[in-house]
Design brief:
Shape: globular
CATH superfamily: MFS general substrate transporter like domains
Keywords: Cell membrane, Membrane, Transmembrane, Transmembrane helix, Transport
Number of helices: 13
Strand content: under 5%
Radius of gyration: 21 Å
Largest sheet: none
Structural class: mainly alpha
Number of domains: 1
Distance between the termini: 49 Å
InterPro entries: MFS, MFS_dom, MFS_trans_sf, Tet-R_TetA/multi-R_MdtG-like
Subcellular location: Cell membrane
CATH architecture: Up-down Bundle
Membrane topology: Multi-pass membrane protein
Number of strands: 0
CATH class: Mainly Alpha
Mean pLDDT: 86
Organism: Ligilactobacillus acidipiscis DSM 15836
Length: 304
């Protein structure tokens, strides 16, 4: 990307990058498959912590590289970082073989999307992932504008918006390992229900904030709900998927997450245009209510 000469070449390379963007889903699948299932919640929460920390540090590092060098050099440095990740993964991450076979000796065929649709448990969980991302991303387009509305003269809108945006990630990094251990002890389904209820309350209250510091506090609490929900969904996917299908199921989960990343900003912008910024938080609370009702009425919740 650092050598492109026009925007279309950059567009094509970004698309190619997305096509090979399976590292996260496969790392989730690898951790899920290689970890004893009674400890999967804690292990996956640690992985979520690393991903969230990367999402927090990435924009900061990118901004620093662009200022210190240039846009093109930033792409070169990013490529070197990815090469290091490749080498570390290849030489230091060891996978124990776990191939399930049929009685005839033939390897079991991988799941198709038709199989996913017919499996109500997996479909519910990956749909939950999508809706959580819709909620997360729907707020992004209006966050800076909402912060500007709440700030008083003399406050830096840019700095305040950056702090508000960072709050969920900070609390997720701090809370995810604790929730992972807690879920392994009390039951992942209970932790997921708590995350839904906590999120719907926090989003509803966020719509009434009057200053940027209260907004910052509620965004911090939003990260706590994320720390409870995201690892719980992945843990339940692990527990309800045959070992030989773990990778493909987590790949579908990442695809649904990407759909949420796409639809979230579109819905958020539409709601802000038709109504106002505060209604987006009520919309997010409604999505969490739908998640909560769907999960509590499902066979999955009754099975635990």
């Amino acid at each position: 990307m650092g050598f492109v000469t026009n925007v279309w070449e950059l567009f094509a390379l970004r698309a190619l990058q997305g096509a090979f963007g399976g590292y996260v889903s496969n790392s989730n699948a690898l951790v899920a498959a290689q970890t004893p299932r009674e400890h999967s919640g804690h292990s996956l929460s640690i992985l979520v912590t690393g991903i969230t920390a990367g999402n927090l540090l990435g924009p900061l590092l990118g901004g620093f590289l662009a200022d210190a060098f240039s846009y093109r050099i930033s792409f070169h440095i990013t490529g070197v970082i990815m090469l290091i990740v490749c080498l570390l993964t290849y030489f230091l991450v060891h996978e124990k073989p776990n191939v399930q076979t049929q009685p005839s000796g033939k390897q079991k065929e991988s799941l198709t999307f038709k199989d996913i649709r017919s499996n109500k448990v997996i479909l519910l969980l990956i749909t939950t992932t999508m809706l959580v991302q819709v909620v997360t991303m729907s707020i992004n387009p209006i966050l800076s504008l909402f912060v500007k509305e709440l700030t008083t003269p003399g406050q830096s809108v840019t700095m305040m918006a950056g702090l508000v945006a960072a709050m969920p990630g900070i609390s997720t990094v701090l809370a995810a390992p604790f929730f992972g251990r807690l879920g392994d002890k009390i039951g992942t389904h209970k932790l997921l229900i708590f995350g839904f209820v906590f999120a719907m309350i926090v989003f509803a209250l966020t719509s009434f904030v009057k200053n940027v510091y209260i907004l910052m506090f509620f965004r911090l609490l939003t990260g706590v709900s994320d720390a409870a929900i995201l690892p719980s969904v992945q843990t339940l996917l692990t527990k309800n998927t045959a070992p030989e299908n773990t990778s493909i199921v987590f790949s579908y989960n990442q695809s649904f997450q990407s759909l949420g990343n796409m639809f979230g900003p579109l819905l958020g912008s539409a709601i802000a245009t038709i109504f106002d910024y505060r209604q987006i938080f009520l919309f997010c609370s409604l999505i969490m209510v739908i998640n909560f009702v769907s999960f509590t009425r499902s066979k999955l919740a009754k099975a635990y």
